[in-house]
């Protein structure tokens, strides 16, 4: 059960602390942990599966961070809820929404030019379609916690986390965050008739199987 109690992790500043002896070695330090709960200073958060009751808050959060993510409808989120390989939320001790992350398996039927780029150029990846955190909860390690939980969850079927970050219009904060947590650029592309240029990023979550 993905919402069951698991390992507690202490997050200080912007770093997730984990042991180098975790299965998978250095690739696994922050990405192969069962992250059901976290303590951030004096604030406790939990990561659980999203449900239909969360969708209005998720939609409002998503729309608040456009154009760093694309605007989508409530109907689109209902499809994600049914079909996404990973759709989880970070909540506080009263189940209040703090942020969410959606990721897709490489076999997903998803009409996105960025997702198709990864399908055409890579295998065994978990595609991060979108992540967002409410403004009052940013810089508390919540995004790192969601990525750690995704890495642990997806490690059974993926070797890589994959995503894109806008270069035009620029999103320097997101680019710096992804570099800090170990993502590297593997390509660029222009989309929407040149209105956007994105950097394609990947991060290993486990070593190759022999």
What would you say this structure looks like, in words?
This protein is 24% helix and 32% strand. The protein has 210 residues and is an alpha+beta fold. It has a ten-stranded mixed β-sheet with strand order 2-1-3-4-5-6-7-8-10-9, with helices on both faces. Strand 3 and strand 4 form a beta hairpin. The protein is globular and about 40 Å long.
Helix fraction, binned, reads 10-25%
Going across the biggest sheet, name each strand in turn.
2-1-3-4-5-6-7-8-10-9
Q: How would you characterize the largest beta sheet?
A: 10 strands, mixed
Number of strands: 10
Mean of the pLDDT scores? 83
Structural class: alpha+beta
Count every helix, treating DSSP H or I runs of 4 or more residues as helices: 5
Q: Which residue ranges are poorly predicted, with pLDDT under 50 across at least 5 consecutive positions?
A: 1-36
Taken from the alpha-carbon principal axes, the silhouette is globular
From the N-terminal CA to the C-terminal CA, the straight-line distance is 29 Å
Calculate Rg over CA atoms: 16 Å
Output the helix-strand order: EEEEHHEEHEHEHEE
């Amino acid at each position: 059960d993905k919402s069951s109690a698991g390992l507690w992790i202490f997050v200080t500043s912007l770093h997730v602390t984990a042991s180098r002896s975790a299965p998978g070695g250095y690739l696994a330090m922050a990405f192969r942990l069962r992250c059901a709960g976290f303590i951030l200073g004096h604030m406790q958060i939990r990561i659980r599966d999203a449900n239909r009751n969360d969708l209005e808050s998720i939609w409002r959060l998503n729309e608040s961070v456009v154009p760093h993510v694309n605007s989508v409808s409530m109907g689109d989120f209902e499809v994600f809820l049914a079909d996404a390989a990973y759709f989880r939320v970070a909540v506080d001790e009263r189940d209040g929404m703090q942020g969410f992350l959606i990721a897709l398996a490489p076999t997903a039927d998803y009409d996105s030019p960025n997702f198709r780029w990864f399908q055409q150029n890579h295998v065994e990846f978990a595609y991060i379609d979108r992540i967002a955190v409410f403004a009052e909860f940013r810089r508390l390690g919540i995004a790192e916690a969601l990525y750690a939980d995704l890495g642990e969850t997806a490690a059974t079927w993926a070797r890589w986390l994959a995503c894109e970050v806008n270069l035009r219009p620029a999103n320097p904060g997101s680019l710096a965050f992804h570099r800090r947590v170990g993502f590297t650029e593997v390509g660029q592309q222009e989309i929407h008739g040149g209105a956007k240029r994105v950097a394609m990023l990947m991060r290993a979550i486990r070593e190759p199987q022999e």
